[in-house]
Amino acid sequence: MSSHDDDSHEHRGSVVCVTIVAESVLEGRLIDDLRSAGALGWTIASVHGEGPRGRRVSDLEGGNIRVETLVSEDVAERIWNRLASDYFPNYAITAWTQEVQVARPERYRGPGAPDGASR
Length: 119
What we know:
It contains three helices and four strands. It is an alpha+beta fold. The chain has a single domain, classed as Alpha-Beta Plaits.
């Protein structure tokens, strides 16, 4: 194994990918909540599909978005708690989390990261 391979292994680690599919009218609010939970970045895409709740208000106002963010477990927990209290009961929204391997996991640790890797 080359020294380059050794370096790449040292910079890999697990983070949580939080994926949210929601009405596009919620985009600004979701981004504010992600930021306040400690997410440092996200990706947003316009998507379409159908779910168990059927037609939504946003079907006429822009469809749906898919938001993904890579974060530490603590930040993922804060995001999930906000979704559960403020979004799931009131909106056509779905979300899921999964552990993923990334290069340089310290880049995804938001405020309050226990190892001081916050940026």
